[in-house]
Amino acid sequence: SLTTSVDIARERCLPWSLYERKHDVAQRNTFRLLAALPAALDSASQLRLHFQPRVDLHDHRCVGVEALLRWQHPMIGPVVPSDFIPMAEKTALINRITAWVIDNGIAQAARWQQQGLDFNLALNVSAADLDRPGFAGLLRRGLDRHKLDPRRLEIEFTESAMIRHPDHLAEQLATIAALGVHIAIDDFGTGYSNFSYLKQLPASSLKIDQSFIRSLPDSRTDRTLVPAMIQLGHSLGQRVVAEGIESAEAYAQLRAWGCDEGQGYWIAKPMPAAALETWLETPWHEQHAAPVNLLAASLAAARV
C-alpha cells in the first residue's frame, strides 16, 4: 500500500520506496500479531522471559542475566520480538508490554534474591519507555511490590535513545539511578554518541555491540576498535561488557584487553529460569577452561 511504502521510506531515510507485494504481506502479518497481543498479555502461558547469563571474564562468575521476551503464539508458534515490538512501540500496547516485562522480571529476580543467588537482572527499555514521565515510578512500584534490592536491577538502553530528547533522558536516568538501579548503555558503537553528553549520563556499564565482537577473529578494524572502546568505557568509570561472544578466541582476547564482562552463545544461550538455575550449578567455565587458558598464554607470550 501507499502508506506502507511511505513508512518504509521514512524508516530508511529515503525520499521514496519501491512498492513490493511482500510489504503488504509483512504488514498484514504484523497487524495480526498486534491484534493478538492483548490476549497474549492476559494469558498466563503465551509470554515468557528467558535469561542469558553475563559473566565476569576474569573469574568466570555469573554476575548478571539479561531478560529477553519470548512469545509462544498458540497458532503460529514462536514469535521473535523483532516481529512485533517495533510496531507495538507505535501504539499504546508498548506500555502494557513494558509493564509486563518489568513486573515479571522483577518478580523472578526477587525469587532468586530469596534463594541467595547473587547476580543482577538487566531489563531492556526503549526510547519510548524513557520518554514516559511515569517510567521511573513504574520501576519503583515493581521494586517495592516484590521487595527486590534496587542494586540487583539494571536498565539497558541503546545509544539511539540518546538522540531523542537528550535533556529529558538525562533527567529520567538520574531519577532511576537515584532509586539505586544500575544504568547500562547497550549496543555501544552502533549509534551516534556525543561523547561530551555520554560522560554526563549516570551509566555504570557500557555494552559493546555484538557486531564488533563476532568478527574479532577476522576483522583487523574491529581488533583496533574494540580495545579503544574498552579504554573509553574505563576512562568514564564504567564496567565494559562484550556482547556476542561466540568463541574461545574472542573470550580470551577480550579478557587480555581488560574487558570486564561478557555474554554470548559460547558462554550460554538464553534459557528459562529453571534451566538457568541448573546451569548455575554446573561451572560452565570448567568445560571451556583449557582452550581459554591456552589462548591466554599465547596472547601473553605474543606481548612479551
TrEMBL record:
UniProt xrefs under CDD domains: EAL (cd01948)
The name this protein goes by in its record: EAL domain-containing protein
Domain of life: Bacteria
Species of the source: Xanthomonas euvesicatoria
Lineage of the organism: Bacteria, Pseudomonadati, Pseudomonadota, Gammaproteobacteria, Lysobacterales
Gene3D superfamilies, per database record: EAL domain
Cited PROSITE patterns: EAL (PS50883)
Family matches, as InterPro entries: Cyclic-di-GMP_PDE-like, EAL_dom, EAL_sf
Molecular function as annotated in GO: cyclic-guanylate-specific phosphodiesterase activity
